DNA sequence: CTAAGTTGCCTAAATGCTTTAGGCAAATGC
DNA sequence: GCATTTGCCTAAAGCATTTAGGCAACTTAG
């Protein structure tokens, strides 16, 4: 009996790769076992089950994405920072569609609170310090940016913007220009 | 043998209700059979299988949502129309989380092209006629609005905005104010 | 270096969802 | 009333999930 050297870490990482290949909701403990050339039951020592595996992949993706975003904004400010930050999200979604979908998994409140999700929120606030927003407008803006990054990435991955002009890259740049302009002139009071 | 009176229509509708109760990705042909008090195999005359069922629920949701959005914008223009339209999306997500998730299912290109998705795109363009955007800025704006509606609804359903101030309704209103302002002053050329 | 303990992977088995094949009975139409 | 279509059935095979219990291979202490 040869030991493959499984650990929770390695299982989750392989799960993330599998997600990128076949889609996050097609990730299965059985397929993972096949890839490790190991019996299914063996994985249950490292992962509580299918749901636990998915949650762990989600946490892993959130962490990885937060690391990338942090790298992207380091040493930048203002619009530069906004663009680098936004690009980190979009690029992650294009390079790792499965992990990106995983990062959007609904987590229960305690898990979410202990996840890298809070780093994402903090970084978004940091970006917004380059603009002149008072609380609670800053919170509204955090939610807007989250929605746009999340939504755009999701639609783009679903193929929503392919096969039609102008290309996605063009729209993305113009949307970021627009968001930058919006944040600089954020309407304090409802427009007439 | 009593006949229940199954049709594809009824099966799909029940599937949509099931999705709202247990979540779109927990929808199962078996559970549906249980609810109709019918054997599983019986459903396979009405639906090709699990994947087909999910796709049909997605198409149903897209249609229903398009109808609602169309009602919402009828007789309105400008910011009024924008808000009514956006609210239709958000309300649908809150009333029908499962169907709303279904509407975000990735469809293959031909299916998508034949779906109510194209009505959504057309309506979004109609909203934007109230603003002074030239092509291709209109397309960029369509994509931005799609991302925001999609993303906000998805994050809100995931519980992202609960348990923190200000409440989601407040943010939503301020975000729509901001989008309206943005569309009225859409930056034609990248800001410096 | 060996014995004891721990860990890693195994076999076995139950449960449940999916899907196909083929059959009988109820509704429908001539 | 009879034939056809349609609706739901039984049966069975395949695969994913999950738990229980076992043996072999590492690790560590004496």
From TrEMBL, chains A, B:
Transmembrane segments: none annotated. Residues 5-65 form the HTH tetR-type domain. Pfam families: TetR_C_33, TetR_N. The keyword Transcription applies. The keyword Zinc does not apply. Keywords: DNA-binding, Transcription, Transcription regulation. This is WHG domain-containing protein.
């Amino acid at each position: 009996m040869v030991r493959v050297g499984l650990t929770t870490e390695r299982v989750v990482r392989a799960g993330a790769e599998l997600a990128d290949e076949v889609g996050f909701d097609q990730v299965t403990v059985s397929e993972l076992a096949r890839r490790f050339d190991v019996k299914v039951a063996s994985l249950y020592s490292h992962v509580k089950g299918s749901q636990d595996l998915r949650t762990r992949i989600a946490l892993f993706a959130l962490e990885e994405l937060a690391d990338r975003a942090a790298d992207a904004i380091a040493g930048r400010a203002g619009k530069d920072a906004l663009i680098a930050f936004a690009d980190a999200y979009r690029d992650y979604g294009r390079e790792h569609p499965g992990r990106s979908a995983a990062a959007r998994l609904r987590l229960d409140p305690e898990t979410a609170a202990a996840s890298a999700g809070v780093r994402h929120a903090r970084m978004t606030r940091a970006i917004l310090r380059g603009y002149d927003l008072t609380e609670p407008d800053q919170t509204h803006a955090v939610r807007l940016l989250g929605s746009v990054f999340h939504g755009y990435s999701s639609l783009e991955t679903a193929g929503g913007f392919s096969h039609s002009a102008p290309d996605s890259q063009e729209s993305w740049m113009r949307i970021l220009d627009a968001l930058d302009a919006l944040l600089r002139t954020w309407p304090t009071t409802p427009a007439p």
